[in-house]
UniProtKB/TrEMBL annotation:
InterPro entries: ATP_synth_F0_csu (IPR000454), ATPase_proteolipid_c-like_dom (IPR002379), F/V-ATP_Csub_sf (IPR035921). It holds the Pfam family ATP-synt_C. One of its GO terms (biological process) is proton motive force-driven ATP synthesis. One of its GO terms (cellular component) is proton-transporting two-sector ATPase complex, proton-transporting domain. This is ATP synthase F(0) sector subunit c.
Length: 139
């Protein structure tokens, strides 16, 4: 694992050095060659990180897992409940908030009513959080 970290740090250092060289170099022809090196180093870094995640992390994560194999699905369900509810709340607040802003610009007396609608849209995220807490409580 330390070898992978050393290789990743070497690639990162090479990429930063190439970026500084491009920044300080005024010749465009030489800079193109260095840009190819930067592209290669970024791609090799991505491949190295992907290999690290696919091959080394599952072995480490399985050693730390609990005895109940179904708890993993519960964690995924809790994460999905919170994440999807948050996405829905963000979309709802965006749509309702922009409409409320337009309505308030025409009639400033309805500001209180529009805040209620925006608050209702934000409640979707709270419902998702409550559902995920209930799921985590049963694990």
């Amino acid at each position: 694992m330390y070898a992978v970290l050393f290789i990743a740090m070497a690639i990162s250092g090479l990429t930063v050095a190439a970026g500084l060289y491009i920044y300080l170099m005024k010749d465009e022809a030489k800079a193109r060659k260095v840009k190819k090196l930067v592209r290669f180093s970024v791609i090799s870094y991505a491949v190295l990180v992907a290999a690290f995640l696919f091959f080394l992390v599952p072995g480490i994560a399985s050693a730390a897992s609990s005895a109940n194999p179904a708890s993993g699905m519960g964690f995924i369900a809790a994460a999905l409940a919170t994440g999807l509810a948050t996405i829905g709340a963000g979309y709802a607040v965006g749509a309702v908030g922009s409409s409320a802003l337009g309505a308030v610009s025409e009639d400033p007396n309805i500001l209180g009513k529009t805040l209620i609608f925006v608050g209702l849209a934000e409640g979707i995220a709270i419902y998702g959080l409550i559902v995920s807490i209930m799921i985590l409580g049963r694990l």
